[in-house]
Amino acid sequence: QSNGNGGKSYYDHHGNYQGRSQSNGNGGKSYYDRRGNYQGRSQSNGSGNESYYDRHGNYQGRSQSNGNGDKSYYDRRGNYRGRRDSK
After folding, report:
1. How far is residue 48's CA from residue 70's CA, in Å, rounded to a whole number?
2. What pLDDT sits at residue 24?
3. What DSSP character marks residue 2?
4. Tens-digit pLDDT profile for the chain (87 aa)?
5. Spatial CB neighbours of 43, under 8 Å, sequence gap ≥ 6
6. Region (Disordered) spans which residues (predicted)?
7. How far apart are CA 71 and CA 75, in angstroms?
8. CA angle 73, 82, 27 (to 5 degrees)
9. What are phi and psi of 16, to 5 degrees?
10. Coarse DSSP helix, strand, coil percentages of the chain, rounded to the nearest 5 percent
11. What is the pLDDT at residue 9?
12. Is the pTM of this model over 0.85?
């Protein structure tokens, strides 16, 4: 559910609140668990690619758009982890 400031709230299939994301205005998002604890962030580079960091600021990996709506995912060592289809 969008909260109007670029953030989203997340719920499980029972309707239980799970946490939220919050846009920081520069292409990045911060993530919080259901108790409001900071969990980490993602940072977009403007071309559909995103880098992911944990709550300590450690790089965790990245996603890369392949131009047709699909995304490929890589871990922090650069190993390919899979992809998500846009369909």
Report:
1. 10
2. 82
3. B
4. 666 667 899 999 999 999 999 998 788 999 999 999 999 999 998 777 899 999 999 999 999 988 777 889 999 999 999 988 866
5. 27, 28, 50, 51, 53
6. 1-87
7. 13
8. 20
9. -80, 135
10. 0, 55, 45
11. 94
12. no
User: How far apart, in whole angstroms, are the C-alpha atoms of residue 15 and residue 8?
Assistant: 14
CA 37 to chain CA centroid, Å, is: 16
Cross-strand partners of 64: 72
Measuring CA to CA, how many Å separate 14 from each of 11, 33, 65? 8, 17, 31
Q: What is the pLDDT of residue 3?
A: 63
Alpha carbon distances (Å) from 6 to 23, 24, 41, 51, 71:
5, 8, 14, 18, 21
